[in-house]
Design goal:
By secondary structure, the chain is of the alpha/beta class. The chain is built from eleven helices and nine strands. The protein starts with about 20 loop residues before the first strand and ends in a 5-residue tail after the last helix.
Length: about 260
């Protein structure tokens, strides 16, 4: 059996066959994965951003957001397992929760292929390895099909996640590595942050072939797309943020979505 090691090197035990775990997930994309592994009946808490699949999560209590959770409400749910993410959840909050939650599983996928370990980690811990391997097979097929479409020369893009202030992603992120699968090179903004702020200037605009506005976390719309395109005189495209930034089971559809995108409209 593979060792079940999470993103910070912690080893996790497989639950006993007769155990009924109580899972709280603070990561929207992983909450969806938990459901797709057939484990929704063990979820006792989720964030307000954990919205997929709606039919399975409707009765699961909300415990706040990804960064402003209600610790007392989580304590009252008596969870046995907590699932968190390094980027999405605050370490002081996770440390506070770890004082009374026996198992804290830390996730941090940095590249699309990291989904395979994520599926196997959660599938292994919760006795859902067969379903995890099915997801691995589906992911591997989409991954190979997507890599075959990679462009020979880089197509330079700027992926925007927020405005007021404008924010983008560094190349050291899951999103940038997803785009790289089809030969799209994320424009590097000078910053030591993984999600840096930036200002529009002629050098930045000249450095990109196309600007991508993500539908999340900021809810960009076609109104923003049209306005920015008129302002900058560069192609601007609205892209599905969930399919490009959510790891977990949604990444399988995300790879297929990548293949639908093309450099020029």
């Amino acid at each position: 059996m593979n060792r079940l090691i999470d993103a910070i090197g912690q080893q996790h035990a497989v639950i006993d066959a007769d155990q009924k775990p109580r899972i709280v997930s603070l990561v929207p994309s992983v909450t969806e994965l938990v459901c797709d592994l057939g484990l929704a009946h063990w979820l006792v808490g989720r964030t307000g951003f954990c919205i997929h699949p709606q039919s399975l999560l409707a009765d699961v209590p909300k415990i706040g957001g990804t960064k402003d959770v209600n610790i007392d409400k989580i304590r009252a749910l008596a969870p046995t397992h907590l699932i968190v993410n390094i980027d999405e959840n605050e370490k002081p909050t996770v440390d506070a929760l770890a004082r009374f939650i026996p198992q804290v599983i830390v996730t941090h996928p940095l590249a699309p292929e990291d989904n395979l370990n994520l599926y196997r980690l959660l599938g292994g811990v919760f006795n859902a390895s067969d379903k995890a391997e099915q997801l691995c097979g589906a992911f591997a097929r989409e991954y190979e099909a997507t890599r075959l479409l990679a462009q020979s020369s880089p197509y330079r893009v700027l992926y925007c996640i927020w405005k007021d202030p404008w924010m983008t992603v560094s190349r050291d992120t899951y999103i940038a590595r997803m785009l790289a699968l089809i030969g799209w090179q994320q424009c590097e903004v000078k910053s030591d942050k993984r999600y840096p702020e930036f200002r529009w200037d002629s050098a930045l605009v000249d450095a990109v072939d196309e600007i991508l506005l993500s539908t999340e976390p900021y809810h960009f719309t076609e109104v923003h797309t049209n306005a920015l395109e008129n302002q900058l005189g560069k192609p601007v495209r609205l892209v599905d943020g969930e399919r490009l930034s959510w790891y977990g089971s949604r990444a399988i559809a995300g790879l297929a979505y990548l293949r639908e995108l093309s450099p020029a409209r």
